[in-house]
Amino acid sequence: MEPAVGKWRWYWGIWALMGLYMATWDLAMYPSAPVLRLVVMNLLQNGAWGLLGLFLIWLANRRPIESFAWSQWRTWTLHLLASVVVAALGLFVAYLISLRLDSWDLGKPIDLARFLKGLPRFYRAYFHTNLLFMWAVVAAFHGLRIYRKYKAREVEAAKLEARFAEAQNLALRMQLQPHFLFNTLNSISALVHANPEGADDMISRLGDFLRMTLDAPPDQLVTLRKELAFIQAYLAIEQVRFQDRLQVRMDIAPDLLDLRVPSFILQPLVENALKHGLSDRPQGGTLQLRAHRDSECLVIEVQDDGEGFTPGREGVGLGNVRARLGLLYKGRHQLDLLGAPGRGTLVVLHLPLDRPGPEVG
């Protein structure tokens, strides 16, 4: 309701300003004329033109001009004729107002001879100006209509882009699942003969993890609390394989747990740390997960003290993480991969802070 009221305020405000402007024009031409009379006359005349302009707006709404194509000639002709008729009628009303306000004696009858003599001259002086006003009304209506269509298309394009990004994100998540399952099943097969009980325990924990994954909604962002729950379920699987060779340390302040992060974004990083950093070390090692605020960012660190990162060895998981972050944050994020052979690896994520609230899909 309010936008519509604002629109009509603009409409009548412009006509009022035009009336005041034309009053100053008349005052410059007739400096001895009473100022109040000129102001009232021009405001009434422009008010009458504004009322007649409503008919052109109604007609433009019923029969809008869609293009400059020749097939639209009937619509163009209709609006041209309508504007000419409305301009002529508006000038007739304006002439009556000017004659009536020629003196403040409103009960005095209009001199017919004077009326007929001055009417053609009035049309010759003001018809083209008034016609231009009517064309401006029609043009303004179509300009506003085109602007609204443009904004609506912008909104629709933004929605389509968001849906496309969501589909890409989901596809990337689905790409991780076979990769994760392959690695886990490969670990289970290695335990089947050497440690049957461990293999059975690992299968059980894998089932719990998959159940948690399937029950989770396909949200793009989840709370850090929920993301850590997935990581803990994943680490429970890997703990069977590593036994006492894996130490896990988490240093995450409780006030960060309700901040939102991309779903399943940490699992590939943790998996890389275990697979490439610690799995081949007989003594195992330590995996650390840390999180803290840094200005306007949430900083998450995944660190291991294993074999160390070798440049050019980025696999599916890390490439997947980079792609998903790019889709979600459009360059507002940062991913740093630090390390050296034999000295461990540190992955640092800088994510824009997201206020706590409902998870978004």
Automatic annotation (TrEMBL):
Keywords: Coiled coil, Membrane, Transmembrane, Transmembrane helix. Residues 150-177 form a coiled coil. The chain crosses the membrane at residues 12-31, 43-61, 73-97, 125-144. It comes from Geothrix oryzae. PANTHER family: SENSOR HISTIDINE KINASE YPDA (PTHR34220). The keyword Metal-binding does not apply. Gene3D superfamilies: Histidine kinase-like ATPase, C-terminal domain. It holds the Pfam family His_kinase. The keyword Membrane applies. Residues 257-355 form the Histidine kinase/HSP90-like ATPase domain. It comes from the Bacteria. This is ATPase.
